Amino acid sequence: MDYKSWFGKLSLREKAEMLTGADAWHTAPVMRLGLPSIMMSDGPNGLRKKVQLGKLKSGTIKSVCYPSATALAASWDRSLLENVGKTLADECKANRVSVLLGPGVNIKRSPLCGRNFEYYSEDPILAGELAASYINAVQAQGIGTSLKHFAANNTEVKRMASDSLVDERALREIYLKPFEIAVKKAQPWTVMCAYNKLNGVYCTENEKLINGILRDEWGFEGLAISDWAAINDRTDALKAGLDLEMPGSGYVCVSELAKAYREGYLSEETIDTSALRVFDLVQKSVDELSKPVEPVSLAENHKRATEMAQSCAVLLKNEMNALPIKKGQSIAIIGERAKKPMYQGYGSACVNSYKVDNVLDALSALDVPYVYSQGYRLASEDIIDPMLINDACVAAANNSVAVVFVSCSELDASEASDRKSLKLPLPQTELISAVCKANPNTVVILSSGSVVEMPWVNEPKAIMQTYFLGEGAGMAIAKLIMGIVSPSGKLPETYPIRMEDTPCPNNYQTDENGRVLYKESIYVGYRYYDKTGTPVLFPFGHGLSYSKFDYSNLEIQVQRITPKDTVKLSFDIANTGSVKAAEIAQIYVGKKDSLVYRAPKELKEFVKVEINPGDKKHISIELTSDAFKYYSTELHDWVIEDGEYDIYIGASSADIRLTGKVAMRDGDDLAAEVDYMYAAPKYFNGDIKNVTDNDFEDIFRKYLDDYLPDYDEGRVTAEECLSDATRMPAGRMINSAIEMILQKALENDPVTREIVYNSVMNIPIKRFEAGTSGVCSKTMIDGIVHLINSKSGLETARIIAQGLPRTLINVGMPMLKKAAEKKSRV
User: Helix axis angle, 124-139 relative to 177-186, nearest 10°?
Assistant: First the structure.
């Protein structure tokens, strides 16, 4: 049925109602015309469909938990992402979900971001290409996706009010590039706009970002949707091109738009444009919804998830071929994570898993004998238990090989929370060192959402990073360590030696003015480490195999090129080992002599091939002119510089096997380009650690003082958060009350407690109205702000401190309920 033909029958009010959700997960129907509502669901690594369990309780359905985004990125395998996408789409169809809220392609600017496990990589090409494969596979099944979080949302704690200050070149080359690739190659049905401000303007209200770049430049044809409770001003957001507000805010949105229309601030044409995009989204979904439900087998999908996981683990180290474990070796399995795997992160990506494998059961199923020792207690992760460590050392000493299972803290992999450090829990690092002394033939199996420091790196013989492999992690790891499958993953991020070595150790979080200064510019991840010569623990793209590979015979078809040419290159990869295995070849491009500052090399293409022992495969790659472009902030366009470019073929960013050159001519006229050797010498020479605010202003092209908040230090405004209000006595009372309530309600669940606390405390106060569907009205918000600021209203503030936290946590705000329900189960 063509619902567009009915569009003219809609009243202006009905069109406005279409621009906000019916609730937390559904679009608004038009009952008069029979226009249905469609459902969205979280689902980057598994379907997280919400269902009601009675009047006052909700939960999520059972579904298969697949490897997290970082684990999938470690596969470097487009076909694997397609497989995940198709399988998830099938689960969506069976459960009448029309839009899957993912993938997330935010760049891993810093390893401190608590949500890094939901993102692919520090590199925009890898992130964008994998996202495009995933999106195409999902949408080929008639299910929509939501590419998120647009854009420069790289910190969690203050994400709803922070202001990411990014220079134009870094924005285009690093932070927008994965979105651009995914939009141009896959056309996601929706793009989700982020919580934060970008260069002074909320992403949901950023017309340059949404209508300018996303739609006009990239040709995006779909719907722009807000992240949950990300709308700051509904009218300004609509005028900027933000079509759909989620979750639904009741009549708060409708009344605000109606007022703006009556006052002439908002045109009917603007309302029509966005309402029609919502219609288009519904139209795309209706055909699939009209088909009979085809049930899926979660048992079969569990098997698929296990097979997928086998391609995602990264063998970081393997001295003396400690892995795989040899037949006849006796095995000590050590660490509680072997029994209770950390296979997913927390927050909106947390899935109510169908069936979770652990390594102990998996080894038993494979008829592999072992002894088990607990080693530490997850319930008290900061407390070292000498008896458990002693028992583990005895078990290690009495067996041929000890396999120690460790993980990051659950608080280190959570939405709305950021990491405090890159360290593993102390009892686990102590266990590693003790077991390695008891048995030098020790293997460490690490599960974390992002990088960790490894002061113990030289102690074990082998280290395998599994990231979060999903519910099939146990069997996947068992097959990998026993050599049934060879590991083939490679790192999608650089492992620094310590936090202080990262590109932005002091500029990651918001400063005292709510700003996040991206002073490192384009130097993110390996671009930074290569440029500055900073030693790393493991380089970007690193990963070992149980086999060996030789690269040879690089041929570049044409070595003198123009921007109109495609560079065709080929080379051979031979498996010189004794086992069937997959290798990932990485193609980098660099330019030594340039007007602009550059990283020594940048990833431009990659390919994964499986090769039998003794066999050779011929690889052919084409590089378009995009591989040689940079973004000129003078010309405000992508340009190509004449001169010589280096082509690198590597097994990692640091393990370059083949090199070649091409010469570019007839490039762009760059006479107007700035000579950055003189204009930005620290960026040009790689002295990034010593970049000052003034140096950053030189490339940002604006004064940082222009981005200071217009707030009075002696007062709190509705634009600020409750965390900001703690500078006032009444604000401190409210904070104490929230802490007390959450401590009592979630005493045994510190992860959810931190998610909810950060969410409540770090949302602008003005958004309480939309977040509670109008329960907390504008008048109430004005009263709250007045009383927080009132020196004589402390007694009344005490009443607020008693009542407000419960209102925020229990009455409305679906995003908080979503966080708090992570342990709700059907």
Answer: 30
Chain-centroid distance, C-alpha 569? 32
Angle in degrees, 0-180, between the axes of helices 794-806 and 778-789, rounded to the nearest 10: 130
Check if the beta carbon of residue 480 is closer than 8 Å to that of residue 652. Answer: no
Backbone angles phi, psi at 363, to 5 degrees: -65, -40
The answer to whether the beta carbons of residues 237 and 205 sit under 8 Å apart is yes
Give me the residues paired with residue 646 across strands: 590, 661
| Residue 463 tokens, joined | 């280290």
**Dihedral (Cα; 636, 639, 644, 649), 10-degree rounding:** 100
Amino acid, single-letter form, for residue 457: V
Contact 590, 646 (CB under 8 A): yes
Neighbouring-strand partners of residue 801: none
Q: Which of 671, 648, 652, 651 is nearest to 661 (CA)?
A: 648
pLDDT of residue 805: 54
pLDDT at 818: 45
Query: How far apart (Å, rounded) are the C-alpha atoms in residues 368 and 327?
Result: 9
> Beta 197-198 vs 201-202: how paired, if at all?
antiparallel
End-to-end CA distance of the chain: 35
pLDDT score at 374: 98
How far is residue 121 from each of residues 111, 127, 368, measured CA to CA in Å? Answer: 11, 6, 35
The residue with tokens 């199923």 is 365
Instruction: Please answer whether residues 393 and 435 qualify as being in contact, where contact means their C-beta atoms are separated by less than 8 angstroms.
Output: yes
Q: Are 82 and 141 in contact (CB under 8 A)?
A: no
Residue recorded with tokens 């980057």 = 44
The whole-angstrom separation of Cα 151 and Cα 683 is 23
| 368 contacts 477 by C-beta, under 8 angstroms | no
- Give the burial string for 414-429 (b: 16+ CB within 10 Å, else e): bbbbbbeebbbbebbb
Give catalytic residues, as residue numbers.
227
Q: Mean pLDDT of residues grouped by 10 in the chain (826 residues)?
A: 72 95 95 92 93 80 98 98 98 97 98 98 98 98 98 96 98 98 98 98 98 98 97 97 95 94 97 96 90 94 98 98 97 98 95 98 98 96 96 98 98 94 98 98 98 98 98 98 98 98 95 96 98 98 98 96 97 98 98 96 98 98 98 97 98 98 97 91 97 97 94 88 92 90 89 90 92 85 89 59 55 42 37
Count of Cβ atoms closer than 10 Å to residue 32 Cβ: 11
Residue 321 corresponds to which tokens in the numbers above? Answer: 């071929």
Token reading at 768: 């309480």
Q: List % helix, strand, coil for the chain (3-state, nearest 5).
A: 40, 20, 45
Q: Token pair for residue 743?
A: 């401590």
Distance CA 104, CA 173 (A): 17
Q: Is 686 left (phi over 0), alpha (psi -120 to 50) or beta?
A: left
**Secondary structure (H, E, C), 473-506:** HHHHHHHHHCCCCCCCCCCCCCEECCHHHCCCCC
Q: In this structure, what are the phi and psi dihedrals at residue 431, rounded to the nearest 5 degrees?
A: -65, -45
Evaluate the CA torsion angle 83, 86, 89, 93 in order and state its sign.
negative
Cα–Cα nearest to 58, from 67, 49, 66? 49
